[in-house]
Structures
1.
Amino acid sequence: MMGLTQFAFHSMAAAWLQFSLQPPAASSIAKNVDEVYYFLTGVTAFFTVLIFSIIFYFMIKYRRRPGKPHDPETHTSMFLELSWTIIPSLICVVIFVWSSALFVRNSRPPANSREIFVIGKQWMWHIQHPEGPREIDALHVPVGENIKLTMTSQDVIHGFYIPAFRVKKDVLPGRYTSVWFKADRTGVFHLFCSQYCGTNHSEMIGWIYVMSPTDYAAWLAQGEQSESLAQQGARLFTQLGCDSCHGTAAASTGPALAGIYGKPEKLADGSTRVVDDSFLRQAILTPSTIHVAGYPQIMPTFTGQVNEEQVLQLIAYVKSLGAQERTNGQ
Amino acid sequence: MSTTATVENLPSSSAEPQVNYLNARYGVRSWLLTLDHKRIGLLYLGTITLMFVVGGIAATLMRLNLIEPQGALVEPETYNKLFSTHGIVMVFFFLVPSIPATLGNFLIPLMIGARDVAFPKLNLMSWYIFVTGCVLMLYVVCTGGVDTGWTFYPPYSSSYAHTDVFLAAMAIFIAGFSSILTGMNFVVTIHKMRAPGMTWFRLPLFIWSLYATSIIFVLGTPVIAITLLLLGVERLLHVGIFDPALGGDPLLFQHMFWFYSHPAVYIMVLPSMGVISELITAFSRKRIFGYSFVAFSSLAIAVISFLVWGHHMFVSGQSVYAGLVFSVLSFLVAIPSAVKVFNWTATLYKGSISYEAPMLYALGFIGLFTIGGLTGLFLASLSTDVHLNGTYFVVAHFHYVMVGGAVMAFMGGLHFWWPKITGRIYPDLWARFAALIIFVGFNLTFFPQFVLGYLGMPRRYAMYPAEFQALNVLSSAGASVLAVGYVIPLIYLFWSLKYGEVAGPNPWGAKGLEWTTQSPPLTENFLKTPIVTEEAYSYETAPEPEVVRV
Amino acid sequence: MSDAAIVHGHGDNPTHFAHQFETLEQQHDAGRLGMWVFLATEILFFGGMFMGYTVYRSLHPAAFAIGSHLLDWKFGGTNTAVLICSSLTMALAIRSAQTGKKKGTIIAWLILTMLLGATFLFLKFRYEWYHDYIEHTVPGFGFHYRPEWGAHAPQVQMFMCFYFFMTGLHALHMIVGIGILLVLTWMAARGRFTSQYYAPLEISGLYWHFVDIVWIFLFPLLYLAGGLYSR
């Protein structure tokens, strides 16, 4: 029944795009989301038709006719009350479990995702590929690969929304949010800002270009030949003097950074935190809020000295140190 | 016995003119300084009608603009001000007060057999406070408007918007106190001033729904007040309460804002459901099916409504666990509403149904509220909400419940109690015609928006990709029909005040203490305090309707 | 019994029996319930702020401790004692009406309550707020970041924001309370209160006690957040 409905809708969509009732389903989860949607549509249609028909039937059968007596009493039925409480509840449980399972599965990006960075600002999207190329209001991705977007805003709250992939996440200033997807067909798809952000909110739109892996590699290669994010970060690392405390010398003041990305770090109060993007961002901008065990809390803040893009560069650099072994064991 | 009460509470002669609350005293002072809950209800009616027109004009301009993908009428900046004005005015200055402050104020004492509400002076004060809020908001609208959306999310609203956010927030803050006073008044009135024999379970369901609404008024409104106050302070003094650049958390605003604003939507819909209970019983001349289930479902909705606010924030960066909790609770809150719909439908069974305008509005409500409520499930469901949040699907959903629901119920209630309020009957043929136009226009306007939303068109867009144009034009066409539908009642209702047929005490032959008094009622409502001996909706002892229609 | 446009005054009836009620007892019951409902709204009103404060304090404990040390707990403590005493005098005012004492007794207790309330406000405005203003710790009015606060400075400012907001709102409620007490004093002077009729005193007492209780929560949260002595 569901498959038939889907087929009907799909063919209509293919024939007349402007009269289609659903957007293209272009990601690994899109079909699953659509299935939940169609089930909900079915439930809605069923109950709407049911209630409408019963009302119409009663309206006609029990219309007031002069001289015709009627029974003004009602005879409450516990059976009915329980039925129409329990059955809708069961339907809700089914929808909740099904939909939440999907949501929870989709909330964690797979471990091997290709990471791309997004900075939203009024009123455009800056996309930064770790290999170096940058784009504005466009995002090129390879088909069939898990893509994780790490996003932040430079000003107000925005929303990153790709209808064809059924993904959306708000983009906040002052922190990172992330979303992941795997495009399962090539093509060009809408990108919208979905959280009202001011005057040109409706123009903060763009395109997602899904390409075959070879095309994508070629695009990356011929894109603006700038340094990779990590290389830019390496330069900044020296420029800002980070290496004076976080160098590789045996007696560094601060923790060595080689290989710490993604690992748990012990803090002075005994707790542990994983060194992820948010942790590194916090360490760079508000270091007095982090106290790593075994080290003095003397790192100066770099708030105001680096913008969001530069923070991402530094993070990419630290990430790139992952291959080397830690020399300062603590 | 109700028949005895009827005779005792009617004047000895029913010849015109009779003294009633409208003509007991004349003059502007007697209205502006009135302590009569009925006159205060009418003062509110006038004010909210004006605000409805303001909000409606904003909507008209919005829909006209959306005929063209690049915007047919206004610049994006103006469009943003229009949708913000539309939302703020319609939510805070029309829907929230609508049924409670007009029909509630007018009817509660009459329905429970009291002479007035518990605190008449506070009642009048609440109207003045409301008017102050309205005046301030109209001032904002006329001097450049506000462009943050009715949701005022920071940091845009606190640090980036160039419009008068502070005054708009203060206007809503002030109007909130009007809600709080109304809620307080209703709670105490219903608890303490019921006539002898009017036990809790003999109360009309309209009273139960207003009681549940008042709980939300009292507990929810202070939180939006403090939230807007904090936002105002941040805006004025540039201190960082919600701005991350200054150490604040924008998500805290969203939590605090929605903690009120979700229960607020139940402030809008619960009284409507109460009206429907009255209309369905009156026009099928039957007791309600499942009285206690309907009564308790109102309370359940009020309580659970405070626990679901996070469903507005599923994609905001809120944790997955929070999402799960809010999702399951949001499904839970749907159940009592479903119970009501089934009970109303079952009430029609073996009834004696007539199709005057109030009944058409009531039946329309049931259909449209069913659709609106069920589409809420799409948004309670996490994986679909990720796709649908922030799109036209949400816009369609809430217009189905608020316009197809609350406004239809308001119109139905207004038409039902119009003879009682004014002593006049409106032309029913025109009324039924208008109800049909509204129903058709409404569906034409908002059903395409479900499709637009699923297709991915975001809300609050002044411009949109060309492929969405057909549906937008359809929606705007529907809006013009809807507008006509709302203008027609304005005309014939005013007309009826002077030229309408004079109404007797109970033109519909309905049960309820309000129908045992003259139309319009005396200032003190009852000549003698009624003594209640019957259950609610005891239609076996109801008089015949005076207006005999098919 | 008609549209009585009563705005000022309470008529000649000393017990002010309002027309919408059937009995005086019903009127008192309604008044009491109304005040409790109003207090519920006040709990949510202050509660919103308490919640915001709690969230930020858990996010920035160190900064909030610094902020708390900017406040003088001795003044806060004294004010707490002053308010508790004022609740006592208020209760005694109600008691003296209840037990049919002379109006002079009632008035004396009411005036004492007002004086204690005024003392609270005087200590707060003259010695705490004014001092903060001079020290540049009033957000939005020349707030200076101090170097010893380091990266915590924005959150210290946020603490002070909450401090002024919460104590300011509380002070506003105190001022309103003193206004109510003035009205009650006038009513007592006119001989309105007897052992049968003292409802306005009782209901206003509820309000006064509530304002006191809010302070009892505010004091430890704001003044004692970082312990009594700086680290």
2.
Amino acid sequence: MTTNLRIAFLPLNDVAVLAAARERGFAEEEGLALDLLRTTSWATLRDRLVYGQVQAAHMLAPLAVAVTLGLSQQPAALAAPYKLGVNGNMLVMAKDFAAALDPDPASRIADPLAAAHDFAAAIGLWRRKPVIGVVHRFSSHALMLRYWLASAGVDPDRDVVLRVLPPSLTVEALHAGEIDGFIAGEPWGSAAVEAGLAETVAVGERIWQRGVEKVLAFRENWLEENPETVDRLLRALARAAVWCDDPENHEALAQLLADPRYLDQPGDLIRRGLSGQIVARAGEAPISHPDFMLFSREATPFPWRSQALWIYSQLVRWGMAEHSPENAAKAGRVFRPDVFRRALAGSDMPMPGASMKLEGALASPLAVGSRKGDLTLGPDRFFDGRVFDPERIEDYLAGFVQVR
Amino acid sequence: MRIVIIDDSGLRATVLEEGLREAGYDDIHIVPPRGAFVARLERMAPDVVLMDLGSPSRDTLEEMLTVSRALARPIAMFVDQSDEAMIGAAIDAGVSAYVVDGLRKERVKPVLELAVRRFNAFARIQAELDEARNALSDRKVIDRAKSILMAQRSLSEQEAYALLRSSAMNQGKKIVDVAQALITASDLLGGGL
């Protein structure tokens, strides 16, 4: 018997696994018919999930934490048993702003610390506070941008203007001069570069080498009441993710995502992010970033609780959430490694033995304890070398210099 | 009660505004979600903000509502958890409503109910318009195909139409599709009509 599932998404490269699950038969093999509902704002995606118009959503990981903590309109306990991707964001700035930075985009991207200091100097030279588009207050992009700016002593709430706008409006806003740059998931950064409006200034993968991006979010009670359906969906997604990670499939995947039902953007632009061939300035040769975006390898979809807690630490750091043991516990519980294990126990997916780890501690790939299969975790450092210990959130937060 | 409608579609906003005025609300403003709309809205200090759920600018609006220092009272999404049917109807109709803190739900509910009805009415009008527009362009296509047949095969108008109809029936297609194929073929062959 086929089970129908409605899942809301925003047009972004990292909807790839959901799209592939539907279009390449992985969902069908599990007896699922996926109805993927394109949405134009995170607010509407959130409302459709919270009020039960969809069973699941392609959601910004920090938004899932924020909704659970009651920070984004109607509070609701959300559960994320699966990560739809890691990395994939890009900061682009208008060409005249970028002119004040290192003229070589490759060296900017390779050294985010130097780029952040150059950026801080460029703010003073700009005719007004630079306006940087972010896709949502509770987005990985906004948290990463804040982290990066603050490392150079820039107060993201005082020294720049962060303007919220959905990814699909970023290029238009840049063109109209309403923003001076933006950080968003692909293909929107590449679209701005290709239009000759902007240059790449930083890529997410160099700020945090394994940065959490979108998760598959459910309402917690629905997830608990439908374990069998959830498990089938996770198995379908895990197989779709293997397909999406394979470079041989990137062309087909780009064409699939280019469809008007998904991104409605040129396949060539979409492929850049999928295969990590980043054109940082229009007309120049691409710069290779093999880890620009991950779907499956290194057990990418595994929802490490420590990652939900890192998000929480950043919400506290920026005054968006009150720190308390209850809030920390609530935030950590949003990520559901237990459900992931249950669903994928019988699959090929290598299964981490632990549910938490230090974040940012690996400078090189490391083979780790796995209940099944070989599991090598990729390097996951933050560009400033800080390590997040989920057991010691206060110490971690105390380590940041207050920029205010 | 000051009501601001954020909407790009002139027609939908008008349909909604008319309904609200008929119901006795008279402090109504329409703001298209473009440029510095958030700053305009902030200055207006609305009690209720109505917005299309499908508008990509909802995130921008919510951010303003979160960080604004200019608004005297916070504004949040109107949600009456005791009335799930209302929430469902609003989402189905594509209405989102933001309401100033402290406004009683008995005062807001009629506004929201009206917005839902008007949004649904607008969706019907839109569908009818699309249908009428399609019908109109269908007729033009068929007329052109008929004149091609009349010129090329010296048929009367009735005979030309009968030929189109029987071809469509034989091929299991719509008349307009057969007519379109004929026009394309004629253009390719330099029929010049």
3.
Amino acid sequence: MKNKKLKNQIFFARQFLLKKNRKGFLLAEETLKIILAVISIGFLVYFLSALYFANQDSEELEQAEASLEHLIEGINSEIEEVEIYNPDGWWIASWPYEKIIPNSCSNLGWKNCICIYPKGLSSIDAKGSAENSDEKGVCKEILKRTIITSIEKKQSPIKIENPPLKLNIKYDDEIIIQKNEL
Amino acid sequence: MKIIIKEKKGELTTQQIVMLIILITSFAVILFFFFRLNLGETTNKEICHNSVVLKGKSVAGFGNLDCRTNYLCISGGGECEGINPTETIKIDLSKDNAKNEIMETIVNEMADCWWMFGEGKVDYVGGTDYLNYHCGVCSNVKFDKAIQKNFQEISYNEFYTFLSNSKKDNSQTYLKYLYESNSIEEVKSKLKKFEFSESFSTNEGFVIITGINREIKTNIKLSGKPLPLYPYFIKSDEIKEKTECEVFDITKA
């Protein structure tokens, strides 16, 4: 009789433990699912934002290319004033600048070129600007030596801001491009 | 006998040959004129309009706009200085209505601009900026020396009166199409900063601009529609001063 009672007690204890274990097992499963869902959502957010910013960057690069083409066409037709509207916050520089020339120009054998590029942390000097022109900007060849300047006859990049940016162009032995402040 | 019949069956008569030549020639002539019509031509304006509609319909504004500024020279026979024109429209200055022709050219360009950017119904600006007006320069307009000499100035009042009197099609005037109103006074209220009492001098450079602000109206009913910037024909120096434009990122040079 005692044995039977003991057996019953053991049986119910086992059942109770099994149930508890099952509950714990379910909890782990749910946690795993949640973790997987969070990872997937995180990946999806990263993917979409990367896609969005890639799209945004390519749009600005296209604008830069068109603006540069417009400037070069203007120079070739000896137009004295050219208006640039975008990309906002990017810079225009002519090369060679402090004897440095971006690789994207020198690799193609260009002696003079003009670039439009976004200014990064590294572009505080000519070398950094050349690196940015190579990596994120756009460059085109210009046959005559060109000086883009805000100070008389000294190279200094011009920022595209408060559109339209009006550039005055003087044609001499060298081409001098200056920002029209009026 | 059998052989003769066989030969006659295969033989082409002179009449048939003449008919064939006529048919081939006329087909060639039709083909020539058909290709001259250039029905498949897609202009920059059509490309721009398509990209605007596509971007307006895309999820989260993905896709790039492909709109380029048109450099328009309105010429009385000469060349426009300070511009590399992509399009030149000649005006016959000997005609009495030469001034109207000039204004019509400008108005057509404004209508093209308004059409290209979805007539204020399409939200084509991506991103998260809900505060600023995003604008594009549809056209950069200059006049040649002959026009500058004959018509030194045209007043904006005269120009807008011309818009209200000229029909774009059977159903509406240019003023109605461009500004969704038949009243010049209402248009004046829509172009708040613009000075209608002034004139534009033909020796200066002008731009035709349009744009939108994605601000969602905070009415009881959220319309969710963008606020359009109605087309302006304005001196390029005065954009900031006389329009609401802040960001220029929808057209390429």
